[in-house]
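cron nightly-structures :: item 1 of 1
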Amino acid sequence: MKKILILGGGTAGTIMVNKLRKALEREEWEITIVDQHRTHYYQPGFLFIPFDIYTRHDVVKPKGDFFPAGVNVVYAAIDRIEADRNRVHLEGGTFLQYDFLIIATGTQTRPDQTPGLKDALWYKEIFDFYTIEGAVALRDFFRKWEGGRLVMNIADLPYKCPVAPLEFIFLADAYFTKKGMRDKVDITYVTPLPGAFTKPVATRMLSELLQEKNIHIVPEFYLERIDNENKKLISYDEQEVPFDVLAIVPLNMGSDMIARSGLGDDLNYVLTDKHTLRSEKYENIFVLGDAANLPTSKAGSVAHFSAEILFENLMSAIEGRPLLAKFDGHANCYIETGFGKGSLIDFNYETEPLPGTFPLPGVGPFGLLKNTKMNHYGKVLFRWIYWHILLKGKELPVEAEMTMAGKKLWKF
């Protein structure tokens, strides 16, 4: 019997195990998925916890609920991949053989990599919201906070869900306005990017929103350390930004297991062909989701769209055919902007976010780079779609390849 081994039971791994189990004969193919954790988190929901919109219950379910019957599930930590011998070593000395391997081990926040980040103020006046623990701690802090300087900082690139820090400050503006204390809260957005986003058209629209909401931006700030005693962010060129409370996106890195396996770059992301999603080093290894070093967003939509391409190419590889499916870097992200409104961006490797309508040209119902209530409803609805459709590998009415239909070219 031939073996497919999937490393990682998060969004990407769960989508793929469902697709493969439906497609491959059980008598011919043994499918195994490995993950050391038993809890599945709806990570986009972490953003809403600090503002008392979601609770812990809204974002947590058992991983086993989403794995299909007929697959082997191994809950264990992974030590390393021994690719030359087609096997994966688990902690404790056991190993698993494979014919094809899918790496979907994601990315993790690494606050330990920034001097001063996890010192005296950690989870007291410095918080992340990319973990359930950080999001809950920040919620408890905000409930009692009486105002001051709120700073949102992105430590480095790349990081999961590039729009989440923007959503955070937009929701903070709405949250403190509704509490009647917005005049007591100074909000500053500190980013290594030259503006609010990576591309000019989206940056223009988002910068206007920041200005409208009286949110200050400090661009091209490369965080070197945090001074806990004086409550300051300090950059490599000695710029300083003071804070009373700091929300931060720590440095993101891939699994240390990737480094031990010799498959990754300096941030432990697997060296991956950006179109075929196959490892640059081994023909029987494919990479999905945040674990890959793709030049696109580390977002759930990328895991979804690229899963369609990886599935086609893996089936081709199994049958000895050329890998003809090509991933174009398609990403699609709703952006919560506060007060029951949201925006939407849709882009890929070659095309930046543009204004228009989505998914139907001229109809929508969602507006690209527009601030509307319908976009907010799309964001809210996505949680149900995630649990009931996306994770189970079911088809969604959005193509994996980005289309220009409905988009408008923009000239400054």
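cron nightly-structures :: done
The CA atoms of residues 197 and 203 lie 5 Å apart.
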